[in-house]
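As noted in the main text, all predictions were made from sequence alone. Below is one such record, for Sulfotransferase.
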Amino acid sequence: MNQEEFKKLEEASALDNVPSEAIYRFPLELVHGIPLMKPIINRWQEVEQFQARPDDLLIATYPKAGTTWMQEIVDLILQDGDLEKAMRAPSHIRFPFMEFVTPTLPSGVEVLTKMPSPRLIKTHLPYQLVPTSFWNQNCKVIYVARNAKDNAVSFYWFDKMNKAQPDPGTWESYVEAFLQGKVGWGSWFDHVIGWWEAKDKHRILYMLYEDIKEDPKREILKVMRFLGKELSEEVLEKVVHHTSFQAMKENPMTNYSTVPSFMFDRATSMFMRKGEVGDWVNHFTDSQSKAYDKVYNEKMRGTGLKFRSLI
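Prediction:
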């Protein structure tokens, strides 16, 4: 897609075109047992019947598990480290959110249907809800998982600042809701395990947030090879630099500063808040942490999937 096409798409999908009265905290309803926001449920058939193309690349995550980070890593790799090209449009334009639905704007499916190939696509759907066309077309998927406690903290603050998300309530009530999977996109446990069990059935690269934080260059190399790209050492270093938390926080094409304030309440929290590993220790009480550990040990037993909560 060239610069002019991106500009037209950006204008059509501009979030500041949404009237403030159209944004409110949408309630959750169930589809196939998974809680999603009501506007998504109302048009679920469009998502379910979405037609993937063989050269689509899907980036899948549980919400607030490093989605935007991986999007920028992928785009900079595909753009050979050229920051100017990667800044051609905000993240949500370069990577349309497949199941996204909000009043007065084209849905994610509508945007993607009109988008020329190759398409870069974002989703938070658990594996079992991903349209089967992705598997029929043998598409590549990059999945990023983040440890449960940090993920819960990040999702909580995002729910507080995003006025379209359900009201998270108090931290105490949110901890329990998250643990029971009664939040948008369902159970963290089911999500990360479902994708983990699917990774050997399809072309899925399963990445861990904590691994990327520990050694960005090592993990970016994995993504580069998965995408079939060869980059010089110099270009690789540029990708590492431009996808650091600080660089992305200062980049208007990745920090969601283009989203109007009536939708994102930045006085409550920034979209890119901390990006740390281990921030959960500043939020979880000892009893909350022990309750999580108990459920974690039960749910994750025998999966072979291991997370680090501190580095």
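The longest strand covers residues 140-145. The chain is about 45% helix and 10% strand. These features were considered when defining construct boundaries for the mutagenesis experiments described in Section 2.9.
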